[in-house]
Structure prediction request, 652 residues.
Amino acid sequence: MTAQRRNGEPSMVKYFTVAAGCALAAISGSPGTSAQSVRSGDSAYGDWQTDAPGVMRKITPADLPAPLATPSTANRSQVVPRPDGAEPKTMPGFAVTAYVTGLPGARVLRMAPNGDIFLALSRPEGNIVTIRAGADMSNPKVQTFATGQRDAYGIAFYPPGSDPKWVYVGEDGKVVRFPYRNGDLTTSGPAETVVSDLATGGNHWTRDVAFSPDGKTMYVAVGSASNVAEQMGARPADFAAFQNSHAPGSAWDREEWRANALTYDPDGKNKKVLASGVRNCSGLAVQPGTGVVYCATNERDLLGDNLPPDYVTSIKEGAFYGWPWYYIGNHVDTRPGAGLRPDLAEKVTVPDVLIQPHSAPLGIAFNPGGQFPPEFKGDAFVALHGSWNRALRTGYKIVRLPFKDGKATGEYQDFVVGFVKNNQEVWGRPVDVVFAKDGSLLFSDDGNGVVYRVAYKAE
Amino acid sequence: MNAAAMATAKLFLAALAALLLASEAVWADTVARKEQLCASCHGKNGLPSDRTVPIIRGQQAAYLKKQLDDYRNGDRESQIMSSIAESLSEEEIAQIATDFGDAKWPEQLAVLLPAAPAATEVCKTCHNADLTGGTSPSGIAPRLAGQNSAYLVDTIAAYATGERANSTVMGPLMQSLSPADRKTIAEYLAALR
Prediction:
């Protein structure tokens, strides 16, 4: 699909008009009904002030503004304690509560087959904790599973299914695995290194891990070292051989074996590139039923407030998603070192769901059903960590991505919002999501070290 | 040379001069615009509103240059600073470091100066007697006097854990400080004027 670049007046003018005009979308009575108005085109863009539970947006490749239509701004958020009386807001019928507090650096959340929740406290500790609760999720108790796993991030149980023997952890420079049996709340043995040469350093340190349903393939996501490889040197000498061994869209120098999703055998052998040009697949998830791999991906900085969209996408084997030379189809980025890649122009896969630029999607989970309304079954829920490269803050929320017949519709809906206090200060930065054994949704906040729970009660 | 050739030569030189001046004006405009980006986090008047962000205006120019180079090549990590440094050319980094180095350290309200912790005597070996930095046995040491205390606390911790590793000496030195020491040192340094 050839993406079109939008020309003409800067979308900033229209964007402010929309913001002043306030909420356009009519939020229909019960969640997820089809009488939902969708903000599209310029009105799909906004900021934390135009967020509200239920607001549905759809950004398409035709809606992209020109590079630097707005100047680049650095607008780092300051995390503050929860202001008095402030609560996260969610859609009608749902309730969100602070489930466990006192978890500094709370990041990746995964559920073991027996319902225990595993949580990585990635930085600075590098600890993994377990959360065990009663059948109705009451009385959660936290225990330390493992310590000293520097930048502990992805957590995956192996073999997949009801009786795992290992829990794998993606961390700084490696993937390790701990022996594990159902019910373990702490390690029974030391970590064994399965992959010892994961790329390390640079901008993007998260290393998510997942397994194919048949247990034959381990997926590991590795983000780029840099923003857009501006300092990348000349091509490797035997470029054809490099492309053969690495994938045609792979970058080199500090970016070698980065900005991709990799596959390995579960014992760490047989490294291959699953898909290249994925700048930072922070959240990796395997769709239940289909086994399709999904990436929650952070696109690049310093092109302006509304460019380019972050995205959530199914990952096709052998596909190239653009980074660093292209974004969202064949939109050219002229900044990468070592020149342009016209040879790749027709080979860029457009991602499935485009999300407001600079939102920072970090985690994704699929709703298996069981508690949320039936029309939400199979939908993906994504945590947006929130922006720095935008004049008006965006992200800092949980969004729902509707799926139909196993595929994303391309829309996304505000599900939990309210963590932005003002344009400088926030009191929550969502990182990851997981569905618990009772079908409620848990999400982590590494700003104030909290795990929140969203439960649904049919009215 | 005859008069006509002379006139042509003068015209050529004038055009060349105009071209050089014009390109320098364009380039300076770009650097000035980029320095506005710095101001968004480091403060328009040199004082960041977020105290975990360091004061850079009036900092040692060679130290600023090294940090920007280190962010650019990955020797120091920060998602925001790495992306920004990556987008700067070598010339721009040199210019920005010079511009910020030449500027005056921002005016700060005087605060009660706590007693100097004993450990700060070691700091003076490299950061100089008045802790404004300069040439040292291990390179150009940055100014510490008046730096934001929250930034100093984070920096001491980052050196101690190895999260920041772009100095040959700071790691072991900071490891030797207890958490209580780190706080009193940071507060003392931040109060210096």
Summary: The longest strand of chain A covers residues 94-100.
